[in-house]
Predict the structure of diguanylate cyclase.
Amino acid sequence: MNHDPALPVTPRTTNDTRLLSMINASGDCFWEVDVERRFVYISDNMALMMGYPATEVVGRSVQDFMTPEYKLQIHRQTIERGAPIHQHGAIRHEGEFICKDGSGKWGDTVSVPVFDDDGVHIGYFGITRDITQRKKDEHALREANRLLRGQVQRINQLHEQLREQAIRDDLTGVYNRRHFVAVAEREIARSRRQQQPLSLVMLDVDFFKRVNDVHGHLAGDEALRVIGLLLRSTSRAEDLACRLGGEEFAVLLPGMDHHGAIERAQEWRSALASLKTRIGGGTELSLTASFGVATFPQHAGSVTELMRAADQRLYHAKDSGRNRVVGALDE
Ligand SMILES: Nc1nc2c(ncn2[C@@H]2O[C@H](COP(=O)(O)OP(=O)(O)OP(=O)(O)O)[C@@H](O)[C@H]2O)c(=O)[nH]1
C-alpha cells in the first residue's frame, strides 16, 4: 500500500493529539516514518533537536540524518535479528544524528512498527530522547578515568621505585643491611617452622684500603659494584645478597646446609680471585675476599647469633691469611 508522505502514518484522534502534547511537554521527540523510512511527521522537539524546520525533514529518509556508525549499528541489529525489522515489535537503539549545523546529537530511540487495519505494515513511529549531554558526561568521565588510571599507574611505579630505593644499596644494587636483617628474621622463622637449614655467607674484601689508596676512591667504588654484580648474577632466586657496609657483603641461603654453603662460598671466592676488574683508565685489578660461613640451627638460634658466628669465622679467615673460606669444619 502506498502511503501519502504528507499524511501521518496513523490518523490523528483527539487522544493522539493529547498524547503528542504530553510527549512534547516531557521534552522527548516524536516522529513517524513510512515503510521506506522517510519521515512523514516530526514533533516540534524533534525539529528543535535537529535544528531543521519540519518541512525540510518530512519526505527525506531517516538515513540522511544518521551518522555512518549509527546506520551500521541499525544494519547489524537488523541482521542479528534475522528477519525484517518490522516483525520484531518495538526496538531500542542509541545513535548520533547529524543536525542542520553539522553538529551531532545523540538520541535514545524506541521505535515501533505500525500496521493498518488490514495488518499491512505501513511504517514506524517512535520516541527519541536527546541524550547528548549524558553522552558528553560519559565521555568526560571515561577520559577522567583514563587519566586517573594513568596517574595511579605512575604513582604505583614511583612507589615501587621508592620501595626499591629504600631496600637497595645505591652503589652495588644488592640489598641494604636493614632489608637483609628484616628478611633474615622472616627466613629464620620459616626455617624453624619447616625444620630446614639456613646458611649465611659473609665476605670482606681483602686489603681494600690499598685499592682506594693506589687507584682512588672511584676505582674502589667500581670494584664494589663488580662484587655486587657477581653476587647478584650467581645467586639463586631465593638467595638474598646484601652489602652490610663498607667492603663487607653477605648472602643468605635459605634451605642450604652448611656443607652446601661452604661450597658456594668457595665458588664465589675463586670467581672473585680470577676476575679482572677493569677500572678507570683501563687498569686491571685483581681482588680477593675472606669468607665466613654459619648455619642455622647448628651454629645459631637467631639472626644476631648467625651474623656473629659468620663474622667470627670471616675474621678467622683474615687472620689465617685471607682469600679463604672458614666454616664450622675448620674450627
Ligand atoms: N671506594 C670505597 N671505599 C670504601 C667504601 N666503604 C668503605 N671503603 C673503604 O674500605 C676500606 C676498608 O679498609 P680496612 O677496614 O682497613 O680493611 P682492608 O684494607 O680491606 O683490610 P682487611 O679487611 O684487613 O683485608 C677503607 O679504606 C674504607 O675507606 C665505599 O663505599 N667506597
